[in-house]
Structure formats: C-alpha cells, structure tokens
UniProtKB/TrEMBL annotation, chain A:
InterPro entries: ABC_transp_permease. Its main location: membrane. PANTHER family: ABC TRANSPORTER, PERMEASE PROTEIN, GUANOSINE ABC TRANSPORTER PERMEASE PROTEIN NUPP. Signal peptide: none annotated. Pfam families: BPD_transp_2. This is ABC transporter permease. The chain crosses the membrane at residues 28-49, 78-96, 103-124, 130-151, 163-182, 210-233, 254-280, 286-303, 308-327, 339-356. Keywords: Cell membrane, Membrane, Transmembrane, Transmembrane helix. It comes from Devosia insulae DS-56. The lineage of its organism: Bacteria, Pseudomonadati, Pseudomonadota, Alphaproteobacteria, Hyphomicrobiales.
From TrEMBL, chain B:
Keywords: Cell membrane, Membrane, Transmembrane, Transmembrane helix. It is found in: Cell membrane. The chain crosses the membrane at residues 6-29, 64-85, 94-116, 136-161, 189-213, 219-236, 243-263, 269-288. InterPro entries: ABC_transp_permease. One of its GO terms (cellular component) is plasma membrane. This is ABC transporter permease. The keyword Transmembrane helix applies. CDD domains: TM_PBP1_transp_TpRbsC_like.
Automatic annotation (TrEMBL), chain C:
Keywords: Signal. This is BMP family ABC transporter substrate-binding protein. It comes from Devosia insulae DS-56. CDD domains: PBP1_BMP-like. The keyword Nuclease does not apply. It comes from the Bacteria. Residues 1-31 form the signal peptide. Coiled coil: none annotated.
Amino acid sequence: MTAETADTAAIPAKAGPSLGLLRFAEAVSIPIGALVVSALLFALFLVAIGKDPLQFYQLIWTGGFGSSFSIQNSLQRAAPLILTGLAFAIPARIGLTMIGGEGALVLGGFSAAAIAIPLVSNAVPPPLTLLVMALTAVLTGGLWVGFTGWLKYARGVNETIASLLMSYIAIAIMNFFVEGALRDPASANKPSTMPIGDAYRIGSIPGTDVHWGFAAGVVLALLLWVLMSRTTFGFAARMTGGNLRAARAQGLPVGWLMVVCCAIAGAAAGLAGFFEVAAIHGQANASLVAGYGFTGILVAFLARQNPLAVIPVAILFGALAAAGGVIQRRMGMPDATILVLQGMMFVVLLVSETFYGRLKLFQPKATGQRA
Amino acid sequence: MDNALVTVLIAMLGGAIRVSTPFMFVALGETLTEKSGRINLGLEGNLVLGAMVAYAVSYLSGNAWLGVLAAGGSGIFLGALHGYICKLPRVNDIAVGIAMMSFGTGLAFFFGKPFIQPTAPRLDAIPLGDWTGNPALAQALQVNPLFFVGIALAVFMFWAFRNTRWGLIVRMTGDSAASAKAMGVSVDLVRFLATAAGGFLAGIGGAFLSLYYPGSWNQGLSSGQGLMAVALVIFARWDPIKCIFAALLFGAAGALGPSLQSIGISQGYYFFNAAPYILTLIIMIISAGSKAAARDVPGELSITK
Amino acid sequence: MTLTAISRRRLLKVGAAGLAASALPFGIARAQTNVVLGIVYVGPKDDFGWNQAHAVSVESLKALPGITVVEEENVPETDAVAKSMESMINLDGANLILATSFGYYNPFVVELAKKYPDVTFRHAAPLWNKDKDPANAGSYFPYLNQAHYVNGVAAGLSSGGKIGFVAAKPIPSVLSNINSALLGARSVNPNATVQVIFTGEWSLPVREAEATNALVDAGCEVITCHVDSPKVVIETAEGRGVKTAGHNASQAPLAPKGFITGAEYKWETIYKSYADDIAAGKTPPNFLVGGYNNDMLRTTPYGAGATPEAIAAADAAIAALVAGAPIYKGTLKDNAGNVVVDKDYDNYDPYLDGMTWLLEGVQGSIT
C-alpha cells in the first residue's frame, strides 16, 4: 500500500479507494509544491544579493545527484539522518516532542566503542563483536531516551526540555570518559577511545562507497512504518498522540506506550552512533557530536513524522550538505547559504500544512471540505 | 580554604550578573508568548540574529544602543513571522519554532560574515562596587544597564499580568481561547502581538551577548543559550519574577566550572561545566508533577498537553 | 572570485572527471603545469584564529599563475571531510589537498590518500608516519610553542610574572604551549607562574570570558590563551585592564593598551614552498616541520603593553631559537613532583610531541 495511510489511518476508515488515491496525491503534491515555492523564494533571495540562481541550482544538482560519486556522497550523508529522523518521528506520533536524538547518538556510539575494547583485546571474532557493539548502542540509546519518556509519564517532566538537557549531559559523560579513564594514550591531540582496528570496521555496501548504516536506516524505517501503521501498537500510539484523554478513557496503557516509543527513538539514534563508530571513526571521540541529532528533527518534520517519508527527506538533506561544499567552492558563498535555504524550505513546508484538506483539487465531490 | 570559598562565591555572583541577562530577556519574551497560549521554541534564532544585527549596526553607526534597538527590530521580524504562520490552521507552533531557529541562525551566519573581524562600539557598564575596595567584588558588581532593565521588566510584567486589562487579555487568551473569543477578543491578534513582542525581547538578549558579554560577534557565540532560556520558562512556571531567579541561578552555575579551576579544583571539569544542565534537570524532576505546577500552566499551551 | 576563475574551474572539472574515470597515473604530470589546491577548514575562515591564519596564507597563493584555490569551511571531523575532499578531487580536479584540522588525518586523509594515489595530501599536524602511511600523504606543522616561549619571555618582563592561560583541552599541543610559556617567563623571572583554566571546548565564547575573568580575579597580570578564536579572551582581558599575549593570528588591534606580543603561524612559508615545488615539477616534502629557524613562525609586532626590557629579551630569545637553543633543558619536574625532563631536548624531539604533564610552576591539572 501507499504512504498516505500512515497519515489518515486515525480517521475512521469509511473511505473508498478513490479517496485513498486523492489523499495520496495530496500527500505527495503539497510537499513537492512547497519545495518548489521555497526554491523560487530562495532564487529571489539569490537575485537580491547578486548571485545567479540558475548556477546555484545547477550546482545543487551536480553536487547532490549529478554523478555516481555525488549520489553516493548524498546517500552516505543521509545515513545518520534517516536514523535520527526516525528518533524524532516515532515519539512525535504519540505526541511527544523529543529532541534527545543527539545525546542518544553520542552515548550509543560511545558505549559501542567502550564495549569493543575488551572484546577486541581478547580477539573475539569481528561479526560477534560488531553484533555486541550494535546491541549495546541500541540498548544505551533506548534506555537514555526511554528514561526521558518515563520522566514525562511518571513525573510530568516536560520531555522537550528534559531531552535537550539530557543531550548536554550525554556529551559531558562521553567527554569525561574519552578524556579520562577510557582514553587511548596514543590518541595524543585528539582524545579518543582505543581504536577497534580495521579488521573490526564495518565495510561499505558492496559496489558502493556508502556504509551499511544507510541500509540499516532504510530497513528500520520500513519496519517502523509497519509498526506504526499496521499494528495494534501503532494504532494505540497514534490514538494516544491524537487525543490523550480519549486514549486513557479507552484504557490504553498510555505510560507504557510513551516509554516504548521513546525507547525505540533512542535505539534508532543509538544505532546511528554505532555506525558512526563502526563504519567511520573506528573509535569514540568528540567528532560524534556532529549535530546529526538536531538535523534529524528537521528531517522528521519535513517528512511529517512518516517513517517512510523520512528516507527521501534524509537523502534530500544529504544532497544539500553534499552540494553545500560545491556551492562554497564554485560560487564563493559562505557555508551558511545552505542553512538559509534549509530554513526557508522548512518554513514554507510548515506553511503548506495549512493546505491539507483545503484544496478543492484533492477533495472528493461528495464530502466537501473538512475542518 | 575560606579564602578560596570566597573567591568562588564572588565569581558566582559576578557570573550570575554577567551571564544571566540574555537568559533573562529570552525567558521573559517566551513567558509573554507562552502566557498567550503559544510556544516559540525558535528564540535561539532571534538571539543569534539579534546578536549579529546589534554588532553590525553598532559597528556601522558607531552607536551601541542603536544596535540594541536594531536587534530588537530583527527579533520582531522573526517573532512576527512566527506569529503569522502559526495563525494559519493546522500549523504546529513547535515545528514553526524549530524552523525559525534554523532560519534565524542561517540568516545571522550568512549576513554576519563581514562583521566577525571589525571591533564595534560596545555597551558600557555601571561600576556599582568601587566602594567595596575589593577589586574582585568591584568587578563582579560592574553591571550593564540592560540587567536592570530586565529586572524592571520582570516586575512590570508580573504586575501587569495581574492588574492591567492587557495582562488579563493575554492570560485569558492563553488559558482558554474559547472564553477569550466569547469576550470578543481576537485570539489570533493577541498571540501575534505577544509572539512579536517576545521576539523583540529575545533580540535584545542577543544584543547583550555581542555588545556586552562576551562582547563580540562570531558563529559560536550563543551555544544554545536561547534554547536553554526557553527551558527556564517552564522551570520558572511562567512567572516573570521566577524567570529572573532562574536566569541568575543558571548564570551562577555556569561560572562554577572556571572558578573552581581557578582555585585549583579541576577534577572532572566536564561535569562542573555541565552543572547548569544537571541542576536544571534535577530541579525539574523534583518540582514537576506537583499540583501547584499543573495550576500555573497556561491551558492552551501545546507543549504541556 | 572572478568569472574567469569559475569558468577555468568548469573546464578543469570536465578534464578531471575524465581523469578520475580512466584512473590513469596522469595526475602528477598534470600537476607540473596546473595546481588545483583544495583546502578544508574546520571552522569559519574568518575566526580571528586558527582557520583565519590558514585562509590568509592561502589567499596569498591565489594571485600566483597556474594555481586555482578551492576552499570549504565549517567541515566537521567526520566522514563529511572525507566526502568534501573527495568531491574536490572528483568535481574540481584538485591535485593538492590541504587538510587543516587535527582530526582530519586519521582515518580520513589516510584512507583517501590510499584511494587517490595521484593526489597529494598534506595535513597540518606532525602525524605522517613513513612506515605506515601512504607516500602521497604528508604533514606540515610549525611548532607554535616556540612563539609561546617568546610570549612568556615578553610577559615575564612586562609584569610581575603571574600569567593566566585560557586553554581549550588538555592535549599535548596545548600543554606544550602552556609549559613553553612558563619556561620563557622563568628564563627571565625565576618566580614566574602560569595559572591555567581549561574550557573543555575549542570555541565557547561565554566560558572563555568567564575563565578570563576568573584568572584576573585570581591575580593574573597577563592573560594569554590557546583556543580557536582568541578574540573574546583578549578583549575581555583588555577590558579588565590587564596585559595580553596573543595566539594563532594577530590580535594586536583588539588590545591597544595592554597587548604585549603574540604567537603567530606563518603558514604562507609552507604553502608557498608547496606551490613552488609543484610548479617546478617536484613532489613537496612529506614531512615539513619548523619554527623560527625556518621562517614558519612570527611574533606579532610588540604592543603598548611590552616594556623595553621585554622587547630586548624577546628579540634575543628569538635569535637564540633561530640558532637552535633548546626550550626544554636540564632537569624539570612536573607540578606533581615527577621528573619529566632529564636532559636537553631538541625543539623537535618526538618525546615533546607526547607530553601529558604540566611543569612545576603551572597551576592547574589535566584531569
């Protein structure tokens, strides 16, 4: 089936296939229309500051998708963003604004690198080591964000603020160990944990330069889409997100649902941290704090919290990051150019939310306009 | 050791006064916005853009206070944009806030490039502690006028929310849009104005960063202070006076790490540096969940539902 | 940036794409006539510090014939830097890559150098290992601690000898600057001390200002630093009425009253030599380090804070360093009482690259 069901399944399903088709058309054309509008607005901005918009968009294409190298560049950069996008999207479906993905990624990556130290020194086979590392990262991330979910449920602590604070604390914990007890003495000027070594590094997807984190992100996005739109759990979670009081009245285990959704989110971000360590750095250090958790928030919003839509949006963001370098090099524009473009896209896409259910084109003739 | 303790306490007092002002302005702005029933998570964007604009205008005009005003103006621009977009049906104000944060920061970085190098005229301080004869204390009591403006504003807001027609209208809009409508109040207009005014204050907070302390413009200037200030509002239970105390506490906690190192305690400095975050989290956990807490929340606020 | 530069790059791009696809060992031959220099910065290139020092130096190369410079700023030490460098190679035809941040080297520069053997990679830290690392990679690094030693000499004679040091992280390159500043100050004033505060981050303006204030409150008369952008530290110290010594780039204009002098890199010496080598068809040296003795450092012109004795002593110290006088010599203890130096060390001795101690006379701890 198609992606639109994720957004509409909470609405009583009296719809026929034609309504489904209309909804799908709406869910696809509004965001694309918004992207086009924001691109035009940004073109105006470029003209106003005396730059050539045609050259700009041509370079975005060249840098993001123009060649096999550029495509792989975009996909590689998208890999952590899929996972951190999911980390924001899943709690959002249950109504929680959880922005702790950054902290879970950092701690997940750190714990994976830490557990690898005794395994590598005892020559445990790489596949087993990587499995243990991945599980540790998932568990750490899950517990870290799950705890924030529990605070929300049990103590009523605002989850947005708490998860932000927890991210700062997570980074302090990582730095404390990386520069202290777990520091590899050889990592002189860049304090890091002991490297896992090339034999333990997870490679690229065969035939590409893209690491396995991308594949893992795609698979997890599919699984979570099934979970959220095709299972009782997902239905209960979305119902809680739609109307908390009604969900309670229905006797749904609201607190448990919240904690599990947050734990899933933390696990996804923790997994992103695992891939940063196992595929890229080979050790944990301050480079884990790269802002992927925060970019994931933008990705999830643009994807309207739909796990499947997270994939193309993350690729789009990866492509923008990849093209940002080309823009700097060829047009002499500052790196903040892409930030402005992203900000503009984000604002316009949010404005476009208001058109859902209000454009005549996508309304079935019988039912007319919905509020 | 007593001497060392005094050093740390004076440093924390000084830190509280120096570091707290941007938190104060952003938190007061957010309090006003949230009291009207809307949340603007994007004040970090206002803060950073305000810092850049203030520095640029101060440099170009030679007048730091003109820079402060211009920063407020840039804050109104972002705040009004937020307020206008949120007026549209089905638009999530938290999402718009995050979008404005990214948009405002991007604009500030993009247009701020030429202003990193120059030295702009800065705001002056009022020396309040020269009579003490203690240089450290005298330094701690070098106070920027904006600090007092912030406190006066908090007292005024506290009074105005209770005792003026405008204050009542804002609170009513925030507690129940339906009853505000029934009274003939334009909910959208009130929220639009409250968000724009909140944006103005956050912009001023940014001006303090670039024109007084630390008194310079660069891309790493804020390090999330606008986000933390929004957190302080919930921590301060939407009370302007408590916002002041929260900001002071946060500033003092931030001075803890460097001042402990200055008297020779440097073990685990990462945790001392993270003290403000840990402290805020602990207080939130302790204070949340109480009946009193639930009572202070504006009823229309999406973040608390 | 001129239009002709852009169109030249466009032409190059086509040529380079063909090169990369055919993967012929063609790059070196090409490099003799045309240099496409790609440089990556970890922060904004106008940060009044580390990145700016590089950007200013590379700017001076742009005017030279046969050189095209492509720059990318704010590139984090993640796979983003690998992809940025690779994109410079694939899309711009870069044949000389300068990676200017410490964390770029391993694994990113090393792995990319293996993948693109025809491209010359040079990294700004003494990390290249001729036994392990690819032959087309390499390192360059001026030992700034020599200039911090000179800072110490000038500071020791321009004040009572109490120096405050705002430092980012307790890593060897930072510790070396702190220790050298102390040794410089002690060479002219045996009672001199250096008090250090670590901020924990390379750039955190508010905490840097707090640290500066804490040091001044603790009685320091001169403030110097090792953070990415010293602007805030120098301006805050100037505002407090104490003297300052700079780091990375010139901060003299920021402190008209109290500026003594500053430790600066002279990257253009290195970049110019690379460009000359490539123009002459030679491969640039794999390992290029230096200091005052080979014109890789400079001392900021003395400011109003420097006393005449300080200027004389600092100039003498520079002359001695040019002649190869060691900084770490004799028997030195760390501030926990262990002997860490028991003989004279050459200023480029690898032992000093790995220091994990603060000398006796430095107040502060690295844990």
